[in-house]
């Protein structure tokens, strides 16, 4: 369940949010949404794969953190072991809220039923004067980045489809202990097709800002080796 309301000092001055990375606070996930404008930061740590919504056929990108549901190999107790935390994961329990009037500005909403909310060890959203805390200001900034990224992502995915640059991806992994893991139902950018694009298509992709995120997504695939090593360590160490 979720209960989203606009954040305001009058109602939420004393409300606390725990931003710590922890399994019981919602970080125990094998993947999370990412957007092209953050691919440069994501690709340093996580493989980036693509997936289609089975109902709409629309694409989205995912930062991969594990090989099975409920597995986050970058979470070690309450310690985040990557140098970056994707926006879609870092913003919880906040989200962008909009009214039915398109002329009204977007608002920061909070899910009052989220496990991060109301923790007495958490951080207040406002100070005694009613000013936003650094935590709330950071959340607002990240929400803006994600909102801009989501708005721009559609054109990027349209370009991938227009030039038929995606191919199905599945990965069968045999771990050191002999057990197996498998990733299925994903897509990745076909590097050969990208390299074979005509000069005009490459110029168009570069002009529209799509070429760099494509290269970042390709570069991110080298992180599969690290992800597998993390999986083996987790299985070995228990």
UniProtKB/TrEMBL annotation:
Domain of life the protein comes from: Bacteria
Disordered: region residues: 1-21
InterPro entries in alphabetical order: SapC (IPR010836)
Protein name: Peptidase
The organism of origin for this protein: Sphingomonas astaxanthinifaciens DSM 22298
